[in-house]
Amino acid sequence: MTDLMVIFSQRPHSSIHAQEALDAALAGTAFAEVSLLFLGDGVLQLLYKPIDATPQHRKAFQRGFAALTDYEITNIACCADAFNRFRLPEQKLIIQPTLLTPSDISHRITHSRQILSF
Fold this sequence. Notes:
The chain is built from 3 helices and 5 strands; from the N terminus they run E-H-E-E-H-E-H-E. The chain is of the alpha/beta class.
């Protein structure tokens, strides 16, 4: 059972929520086992260079994903449907997620004690 699941559903740089989700996940490791789940447009955050430019001149926070193992965050998954819809090239991913079906996603969410959705 995961103590804290952080769900990423926003495009990178579409709002501050994407960066706040990463910050919450890293901070959450101080008190819980953390897992990450990327859904919908959130899967675009897995790319080294996000598809969106940074029109709001926001900080390029995606490099922080490379530090996830330093924080002992290894349970990283994403929606297989969204991953395939965006045709994400595996060689351009910051991290390699586990691809999940909708029923797998539902199961993981159901078995998480706390969920933060951004």
